[in-house]
Design goal:
Helix content is 74%, strand content 0%. The termini are far apart. The protein has 68 residues and is mainly alpha-helical. It has helices spanning 4-16, 25-30, 34-51, 55-67. The chain has one domain (4-67). The protein is globular, with a radius of gyration of 11 Å. The chain has four helices and no strands.
Length: 68
């Protein structure tokens, strides 16, 4: 059985695979490199832990932050 951290990382990957240049262009640009993906994954994990958001709800929030 997967541990909770691995389940969360798997869910984050599934959600980030749904990101396109149309629905979240700044996030999409960021996740095109391994370091950018890891940064995004860490940001989402923090939002899940601190703010109680789901990974899918975190992505639009991060996109808005990147637009500022």
């Amino acid at each position: 059985m997967e541990n909770i951290e691995q389940q969360l990382r798997t869910e984050i990957m599934a959600q980030l695979k749904r990101v396109t240049t149309l629905n979240a262009p700044n996030v999409w640009n960021l996740i095109q490199t391994e370091s950018g993906y890891r940064d995004m994954e860490n940001r989402i994990i923090r939002m899940v832990a601190v703010e109680g958001l789901t990974p899918s709800a975190s992505i639009p929030h991060i996109e808005n932050e990147l637009c500022l």
